[in-house]
Structure formats: C-alpha cells, structure tokens
C-alpha cells in the first residue's frame, strides 16, 4: 500500500495538501447537498423511486456500499507505515471510527427487516462517499494528525469522546427500535415508541449527528469537521422529511414530538 501511495503522491506534504482539499471539498459538497435537499428527499428507504436507477436488494446495497468505509481504513491502518498510530489520541479516534463502521458495514445490513430496495444512484453515491471519507478520516488520523501532549485529558477531547459514545449508543438503540417495529416478513410502517422517539421523529439521526459532532470536537481537524457537517446536512433533512411524512400518514401521531431536537425543532 505504501508503494501505491508513493506512486500517487510525490511527497507527504502533497498528500496532506490533498487531504486538506478533500475536507474543504466535502464542506462545499455539504452546502450544495443542503440546497438540493430543500427540493428533494434523499431517494432511498420510504422515498425510493426508479427515477434514480434500478432497485437493489436493501441488505446487499447497505453491505456493499458501506464496505469501503471499513476496508479502505483497514488497508491504510494495517498495511501502510501509518506513522501516527502509536499515539494515544490517534488510536482512540481511530477506535471511534472503526467501532461505528464495524457495526454499520458488517452487522447493520444483516439486521434490516423488510427495508425498501435502494435505487442504483443512491447506492453508487454512498459507495463513493464511503471510499472518499474512509480515506480522508483514517489516512489523516493514522499518518498525519499531531495532537499536543495530554490532548486526551483536554476538555474538548473528553467532551467530544462522551458525545461520540452517547451518540453512538442512541443511534444503535434507535435503529434497534425501528427494526423491531416489524415482524419478520412485514414491510409497512408503524409509529416508533420508546427511547428518544418519545421526543423526536429522527432519534437514530440525532444519535448519528451527535456522534460525528463529538468525533469532530475530539479530532479537532477540518477533516473530522467536514464529515460532521456533511452528516448533519443529510440526516437533518431526512429527520424533517420523516417527521412531515409521519404527520400526514398517522392521524394519531404524537403532536408534541419534534423532528430532530427534543422540545425545540
Ligand atoms: N452518516 C451519514 O451520512 C448517514 C447517511 C444515511 C444514513 N445513516 C445512518 O444509517 C442508518 C439508517 O438510515 P436510514 O436513512 O435508512 O434510516 P430510516 O429511514 O430511519 O430507516 C431505518 C430502517 O428502519 C425502517 N423503518 C424506519 N422507520 C420505520 C417505521 N416507522 N416503521 C417500520 N420500519 C421503519 C426502514 O425501512 P424502509 O427501508 O422500509 O423505510 C429501514 O429499514 C441510520 O442509523 C442513519 O443514521 C448515516
């Protein structure tokens, strides 16, 4: 892998410059996505349509599209020189990343119950994003990110780490609640109850936004910030769309429930 990276980049300074550019590009993409999502829902799940290409089995789509977010980092961390992996802040941040993507790419797809098939365009975009972001986050953390000594005891790292942990737990728990709304073989929708769903329609999205915001705070880089912003744009839009959808679909939908932020929004 080192040989491939050396073939692509003439120096480490050049690779770091490219990583910075990729992060800024992701922020620009997030802004463009924000504008697009004012007019269109992200086309998968309940909004899936053949306008965005042929439909792919949902478990296969989630497994394949998320796989690069796991395998690209495995290659970068274990099969390149990865010179910063001996440092504790880098190790902990990489653990956060891997913990999420082991669950998301190797476990989550096989637990889905009755999910709608995914249009090819959504699948392809997610696949490319997972390569892009997997490289961006883990190459930066494993080979370039330098933190001051004692960074893991800095309030920003501790708060960020706690936000990441509670966000991840909320996300996994909320996805578990959604999954269990269906008996095996069912494909319809019910009103989610329990956990943060008592307060918001997008509990799983709230958890994931909190997770990557915490990761960005602990990671203290434009690279992790870009991922947090992109996640927030996509998932906030999805939470708002789901909330409106529930209100039109279920007459008895709890009126006090908000879309994304308990008691506020
Ligand atoms: N970091 C990122 O940028 C990013 C982007 C996208 C997703 N994600 C994460 O990926 C996970 C899945 O996202 P998603 O957009 O697919 O979530 P979702 O729309 O809430 O759907 C999750 C699963 O639950 C089912 N479901 C949802 N609401 C239901 C209801 N009321 N009754 C019965 N079943 C219901 C869905 O089935 P159907 O397929 O039939 O709707 C789907 O299988 C989430 O944890 C999310 O945070 C992260």
From TrEMBL:
Membrane topology according to the record: Multi-pass membrane protein
Name under which the protein is recorded: 3-oxo-5alpha-steroid 4-dehydrogenase (NADP(+))
Function: Converts testosterone into 5-alpha-dihydrotestosterone and progesterone or corticosterone into their corresponding 5-alpha-3-oxosteroids. It plays a central role in sexual differentiation and androgen physiology.
Intracellular or extracellular location(s): Endoplasmic reticulum membrane; Microsome membrane
CC terms in the record's Gene Ontology section: endoplasmic reticulum membrane
EC identifiers of the protein: 1.3.1.22
GO BP term (any one): androgen biosynthetic process
InterPro entries: 3-oxo-5-alpha-steroid_4-DH, 3-oxo-5_a-steroid_4-DH_C, SRD5A/TECR
PANTHER family: 3-OXO-5-ALPHA-STEROID 4-DEHYDROGENASE, 3-OXO-5-ALPHA-STEROID 4-DEHYDROGENASE 1
Transmembrane feature ranges: 16-39, 60-79, 118-136, 156-174, 221-241
Native organism: Coilia grayii (Gray's grenadier anchovy)
Gene Ontology MF terms in the entry: 3-oxo-5-alpha-steroid 4-dehydrogenase (NADP+) activity
Family per record: Belongs to the steroid 5-alpha reductase family.
Keyword match Plastid: no
Pfam family, one: Steroid_dh
Record's catalysed reaction(s): 17beta-hydroxy-5alpha-androstan-3-one + NADP(+) = testosterone + NADPH + H(+); 5alpha-pregnane-3,20-dione + NADP(+) = progesterone + NADPH + H(+); androst-4-ene-3,17-dione + NADPH + H(+) = 5alpha-androstan-3,17-dione + NADP(+); a 3-oxo-5alpha-steroid + NADP(+) = a 3-oxo-Delta(4)-steroid + NADPH + H(+)
Keyword Disulfide bond set for record: no
Top EC class for this record: oxidoreductase
Keywords in alphabetical order: Differentiation, Endoplasmic reticulum, Lipid metabolism, Membrane, Microsome, NADP, Oxidoreductase, Sexual differentiation, Transmembrane, Transmembrane helix
3-oxo-5-alpha-steroid 4-dehydrogenase C-terminal domain location: 117-265
């Amino acid at each position: 892998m080192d040989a491939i990276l050396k073939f692509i980049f003439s120096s480490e300074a050049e690779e770091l410059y490219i990583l910075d550019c990729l992060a800024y590009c992701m922020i620009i993409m997030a802004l463009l996505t924000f504008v697009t999502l004012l007019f269109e829902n992200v086309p998968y799940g309940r909004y899936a349509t053949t306008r965005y290409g042929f439909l792919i089995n949902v478990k296969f789509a989630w497994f394949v599209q998320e796989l690069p977010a796991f395998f690209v980092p495995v290659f970068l961390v274990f099969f390149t020189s990865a010179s910063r992996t001996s440092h504790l802040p880098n190790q902990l941040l990489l653990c956060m990343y891997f913990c999420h993507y082991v669950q998301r790419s190797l476990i989550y797809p096989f637990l889905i119950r009755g999910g709608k098939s995914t249009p090819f365009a959504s699948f392809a975009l997610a696949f490319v994003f997972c390569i892009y972001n997997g490289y961006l986050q883990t190459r930066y953390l494993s080979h370039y990110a330098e933190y001051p000594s004692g960074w893991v005891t800095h309030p920003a790292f501790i708060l960020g780490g706690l936000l990441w942990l509670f966000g991840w737990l909320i996300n996994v728990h909320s996805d578990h609640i959604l999954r269990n709304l269906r008996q095996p073989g069912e494909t319809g929708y019910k009103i989610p109850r329990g956990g943060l769903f008592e307060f918001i329609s997008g509990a799983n999205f709230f958890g994931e936004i909190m997770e990557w915001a915490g990761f960005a705070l602990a990671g203290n880089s434009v690279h992790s910030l870009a991922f947090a912003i992109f996640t927030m744009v996509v998932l906030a839009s999805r939470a708002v769309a789901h909330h409106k959808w529930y209100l039109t679909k279920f007459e008895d939908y709890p009126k006090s429930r908000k879309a994304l932020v308990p008691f506020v929004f």
